[in-house]
Every structure is written in C-alpha cells, then in structure tokens.
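Colleagues,

For the teaching module next term, I've prepared a clean inverse folding example: a structure given as tokens, and then the sequence designed for it. I'd like students to try predicting residues themselves before seeing the answer, so please don't circulate the second half yet.
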C-alpha cells in the first residue's frame, strides 16, 4: 500500500534555545492575554528557581497570573476541575504550562474545560466537544511527550481507574519555549523515561506496512539514532547542553505530526501503557520500556521488512541470515539491552515493583474503547500475552 494522503498543519511557535525563558512575559501577553492561569507540577519549578523567574517576567509584561500547583505525573481530572474553576471564576484569558507532559496536558484540558459548564471528564469520555479552547503557552522542562507542539492531552480519573487521551485542533500551544538548560535539573530516571517515550513515539509511527515513506523513514531513523546517542550522554553529564538540546528537539519532532504525516501510526503500545499506568501508577516512559519490547517480540515476523530496517539502520545490527521467526527475540534483546545497560531503566513490571499486574482488568477496560482493528489486528489473547510477557 502506498503512503496515505495527508494534511499537515502545526500552528505552534517553537522558541528554542539557551535562556529563551526570558521571553515568556512578552509571548504570554501577545498570545494568551493579560490574565492567565499558571499551571505547575509539585515542586521542581519552585526548587530550581524557574517559578520566580517566570513570575517576574510576567509581571514585567503586565500579565496577572493566578497559580495552580501540584499537577502530578499521570495528571488527575481533579487538577483539571480545580483549574477550570479558577479560570471561570477569575475570567482568565489563557493558560501557561510550566513543566513536563503532565502539566501541559492538564493545562490543555483546563483550557478546553473553561468552555464547558459540566464535568471536564466528559471531554475525555468524548461526550462533548468544546467549541473552542483558550490559548495555551508552554515552558517545557522535560523532553519526552511532544505535548509542547501537539493537540493531545492525556488525563487520569482515579475514581474510574481510567487514563484517556483527547485531541482538539485548537489545543496546540500557541507557543512553546524550549530551553534545553531547563532540563539540566531532571533526575536521571526522568531523563531515561523521557528518552524511552520519545523513541516509543517514533516506533508507533515507524512499524507500518506502507511503501514509499522514504522521507518519514529517514526522519524517524535520524530521531531514533539521535536519542540513542544523546540520552546516555545526558545521563553521564546532566549539564551537557548539546545532548539536552538534541533530546528536546527530538521530543517535539517525534510527536508534532511530521513523521506521522502519510505514515499511519499504530499506537497500540501507548494504549496498553495507559492501562498499565492507570492501574499501577507507573511513569509513562517506564511503562513503555516494559510494553514495547514485549510487543516487538510478538509482531516482528509479521512486519519483517520494517523490523529488518529498524535493526540495521537504527541499531547497526545485521539481520543477514536471521530467520523471520528469530527477528522478534533479536529486537527484544537489542532494545532491552540499551534500556537496561545504557539508560538504567527497568524492562519488566517487576523491575518497577508491580508484582501482581491486573492483566484481566487492563485488557477488559481497554477493550471497552478499542477494537481488534484499532489495536493493529491483535486478538484479546495476544494483548494478554504482551502484558504477561512484560510482567
Ligand atoms: O512535579 P514536579 O515536581 O515538577 O516534578 C516532575 C515530575 O515528578 C519532574 N520534572 C519535570 N521537569 C523537571 C522535573 N524535575 C526536575 N527538573 C525538571 N526540569 O518530572 C516528573 C515527571 O513529569 P511528567 O510531566 O509527568 O513527565 P512527562 O513529561 O513524561 O509526562 C508524562 C505524561 O504525559 C502523557 C503521559 O501519559 C503522562 O501522563 N503523555 C502525553 C502525550 C501528549 N500529550 O501528546 C503523549 C505521550 O505519549 C504521553 O501519553
Ligand atoms: Zn508517549
């Protein structure tokens, strides 16, 4: 099958470089208005001084900022409810996210929920589509999700144990400041999980069965090789600007629609991972380090050509003379060796303290909104096998 037709449109302004956070006041005033909600995580932005820098810049530009602190990894719908309440009560004009994917996703949901009188969770249940979304800006502090330049938001609901994704064409940030120096303070495991997440976004869009996708393949291979080269450098030397800059730009390019244009993505492993982190509260990248290799081992022989290309061009592993049925194990070994040895990331659920995974619950829950067709043709038994092999 040939490459699909596509429409590529990405409206996010990316302001990239050392010290670019200094522009946040002017950018906010120009694109979000004069009264914004500043959305933050639990403590890192306070500890490393980023919060006070941003508050100062906003004040200099005449922007009034209300604050919502405490957005946790795998952000909860409770934070969205609280933020939407503040935005409505105070008549705010935009939402500024300062953090990683969790904070940005929460900001997007708040910006949409501001247009909806009912419970924001209805957005994620796809019961309503807000007519509009308040403008969003980002100061990115973690290279991982690509949320800084896409229209996706992923939110968890602890009451129903669901973690659901939502997309809106108006939810792309109006601007994103990508200052690699802001990632110097990341704990090593977050750098590692971020690298796994970036790689996983590329995997999701790489293992298709289409022909004629040379351009997307070339970009995808470059992104993967860059992450594989730079993540260990950033772990060994957290202040290495070049390594951090490569990871940050890779984060954005892996999920801003560019490499997926015309090359239809799969996203099965992300759905499986969202179930895993919804039921066992794992970091997203950690869940992907567990799920993806297990999926690869199962499906490699069915996508033989793509997996040979992957091993040869991304990992420099020769597949000459390797039988199709051996490709899965070879891929599993190659990828998990890198995760374990070079990123110090676990590759089984046990490595993350999940000794009794609720496989039945995860599969049953996922099959309420996914079908075999939208899971790349996997049967229920195969999904169970991926989880069990990853345990
Ligand atoms: O909460 P604080 O104290 O700020 O600490 C955070 C958090 O504990 C810390 N951190 C962030 N920047 C830091 C820092 N610590 C020190 N220095 C810094 N510069 O890192 C921890 C993790 O942050 P989080 O935002 O949760 O990580 P990530 O960016 O990996 O986001 C994960 C979330 O995004 C969703 C995931 O499912 C998960 O909920 N995703 C969103 C996507 C999207 N919108 O397109 C796609 C992804 O596939 C993914 O599903
Ligand atoms: Zn991801």
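(Answer key — instructors only)
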């Amino acid at each position: 099958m040939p490459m699909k037709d596509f429409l590529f449109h990405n409206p996010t302004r990316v302001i990239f470089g050392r010290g670019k956070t200094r522009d946040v006041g002017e950018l906010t005033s120009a694109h979000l208005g004069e009264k914004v909600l500043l959305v933050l995580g639990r403590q890192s932005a306070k500890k490393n001084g980023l919060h006070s820098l941003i508050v100062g810049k906003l004040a200099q530009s005449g922007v009034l900022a209300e604050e919502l602190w405490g957005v946790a990894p795998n952000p909860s719908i409770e934070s969205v409810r609280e933020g939407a309440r503040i935005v409505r009560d105070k008549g705010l004009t935009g939402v500024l996210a300062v953090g990683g994917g969790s904070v940005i996703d929460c900001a997007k949901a708040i910006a949409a929920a501001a247009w909806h009188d009912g419970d924001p969770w209805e957005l994620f249940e796809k019961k309503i589509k807000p007519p509009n979304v308040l403008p969003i800006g980002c100061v990115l502090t973690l290279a991982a999700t690509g949320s800084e330049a896409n229209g996706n938001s992923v939110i968890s609901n602890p009451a129903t144990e669901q973690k659901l994704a939502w997309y809106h064409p108006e939810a792309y940030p109006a601007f994103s400041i990508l200052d690699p120096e802001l990632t110097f303070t990341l704990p090593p495991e977050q750098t590692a999980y971020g690298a796994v997440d970036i790689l996983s976004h590329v995997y999701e869009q790489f293992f298709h069965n289409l022909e004629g996708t040379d351009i997307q393949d070339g970009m995808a291979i470059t992104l993967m090789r860059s992450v594989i080269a730079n993540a260990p450098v950033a772990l060994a030397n957290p202040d290495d600007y070049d390594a951090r800059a490569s990871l940050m730009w890779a984060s954005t390019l892996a999920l801003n629609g560019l490499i997926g244009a015309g090359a239809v993505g799969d996203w099965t492993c992300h759905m499986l991972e969202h179930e895993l982190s919804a039921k066992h509260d794992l970091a997203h990248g950690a869940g992907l380090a567990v799920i993806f290799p297990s999926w690869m081992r199962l499906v490699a022989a069915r996508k033989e050509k793509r997996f040979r290309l992957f091993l040869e061009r991304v990992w420099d592993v020769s597949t000459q003379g390797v039988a199709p049925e051996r490709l899965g194990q070879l891929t599993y070994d190659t990828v998990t060796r890198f995760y374990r040895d070079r990123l110090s990331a676990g590759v089984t659920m046990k490595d993350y303290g999940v000794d009794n995974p609720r496989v039945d619950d995860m599969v049953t829950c996922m099959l309420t909104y996914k079908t075999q067709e939208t899971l790349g043709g996997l049967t229920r038994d195969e999904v169970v096998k991926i989880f069990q092999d990853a345990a």
